[in-house]
């Protein structure tokens, strides 16, 4: 399964908060993955998630400015290899505080090199530091790739089900 060429990127990549100059590359990865280019969406997300410049590890910040929203990128130098977005949410759907993963994407030619794993672990570390011990996500039933990925990371079906109807 593992792609030895891409594995080099796992060794080289670093994970940090996304910044404005990363957004064109994030858009390119997302467009490659989903077939839809949504520039405004990504710019808005950056503003909402990373407008504060400090990461969770910044001990110079008082506890009151603890970070709960994370828009992270995995980089090799200036090249963005992938991104992940997540947030700590409390009491919605009757759930005690937990981390939610809203999106993940890895550049096509870098996949199966451990970048997805590194991104997820970086987000989970930040969730732990924010004080939660559970992480959740939602995925399309027929998306076998993303399902295999999350299963491989130890995630499994949880106690909630999703309901919807056409309006
Ligand atoms: C899912 C995704 C994030 C995985 O990223 P990645 O960097 O390739 O993942 P990793 O290399 O860390 O793989 C970790 C594990 O996931 C599983 N996995 C990854 N790719 C897989 C594939 N193509 N088939 C089956 N399992 C796979 C494997 O168990 C793998 O472990 P292994 O390499 O030891 O076998 C990436 O494929 C992707 O971006 N897919 C598109 C996502 C998308 O469409 N997002 C939009 C909706 S949120």
How would you describe this protein?
This protein has one domain (4-152): Gcn5-related N-acetyltransferase (GNAT) (Aminopeptidase). The mean pLDDT is 89. It has 5 helices and 5 strands; from the N terminus they run αβααβββαβα. Helix 2 (23-34) crosses helix 3 (39-50). It is of the alpha+beta class and 167 residues long. It has a 5-stranded mixed sheet, with helices on both faces. Helices cover 34% and strands 21% of the residues. InterPro entries: Acyl_CoA_acyltransferase, GNAT_dom. Residues 13-167 form the N-acetyltransferase domain. This is N-acetyltransferase domain-containing protein. Pfam families: Acetyltransf_1. GO terms for molecular function: acyltransferase activity, transferring groups other than amino-acyl groups.
Key structural traits:
167 residues; alpha+beta; Aminopeptidase; 34% helix; binds coenzyme A; GNAT_dom
Please, what is the CATH homologous superfamily? Gcn5-related N-acetyltransferase (GNAT)
Residue stretches low in confidence (pLDDT < 50, at least 5 long) are: none
The separation of the N and C termini measures 42 Å
Examine the coordinates and then state which fold CATH places here, giving the name of the CATH topology.
Answer: Aminopeptidase
Q: Over the alpha carbons, how many angstroms does the gyration radius reach?
A: 16 Å
Number of domains: 1
In total, how many beta strands? 5
Largest sheet: 5 strands, mixed
Listed once per kind, the bound small molecules are:
coenzyme A
Strands of the widest sheet, in order across it, are 1-2-3-4-5
pLDDT averaged over residues: 89
InterPro entries: Acyl_CoA_acyltransferase, GNAT_dom
GO molecular function, one term: acyltransferase activity, transferring groups other than amino-acyl groups
Pfam families: Acetyltransf_1
Domain N-acetyltransferase: 13-167
